């Protein structure tokens, strides 16, 4: 048995969807979660890819997540709305919220949707990308349970609190930024632990708050910017909490049940998300936007690079990984392969 199995996308999609349905998820929830996880696995964001399928199955079966949610939307103004996820899988809620935000933005220019009573939604970039593919500039974010120390802190406070921004580019894949406000996502710590790999320097700390390279000793993550400039990541994490939790009335990071808390897999976590959509047609206009975006990215990619380096626009690395994995298959860790019934 090897540590990594490489599987084709179609097989992973079929097995992941079947596993979620077997855990009780209705078709819409299972398809949305599968779509989001495959997005991450295709683009090389393995920490948020199909390896999360077993966790979602656990929380569906335990009662923490509602397998058959009845989502409700309340329009609050011409450019704002609130979507109640009914404690279902966060992926379905986030895709629905982004679609709603885009539809409203086509009318009002800018629109935002807050999501309440939701759960973990995986890679934020999946939803921003969906909006960009619909022709709008979009932002997706979510607060999460406390796992990241404050700058200079020695205990958990913020979640990894991801931010994703995407923008359409004519005749090219979208400009796509997808980042955690911690140095790395906690799911990457778990992935490195599964793979038996050491962590990079300056991304995580042990229970005393001291940096560690051993994923089995990690008690908290260090904010984006590391030990010297972590105040930047900590402030960005707070911004995500402001929009996703404070603005929507959802659970604050430090008050939220931990995602991996095995002693309580029954109580909903009531996570908040926030989606924003901007229609370029309502600002510079589509023609000028398209021309400027094309010219900007051409200049960026032609910019001089350091020796042995290359410059890339946000998303370029992910599109290259996606193309490679389309040819060679998607790597899956041993535990996930076993859960999905893949040949190991």
From TrEMBL:
Family from the record: Belongs to the LDH2/MDH2 oxidoreductase family.
Key words, A-Z: Oxidoreductase, Plasmid
Species this chain originates from: Microvirga terrae
Descriptive protein name: Ldh family oxidoreductase
UniProt KW Oxidoreductase keyword: yes
Residues in coiled coil: none
Domain of life of the source: Bacteria
Pfam families with a match to the protein in the record: Ldh_2
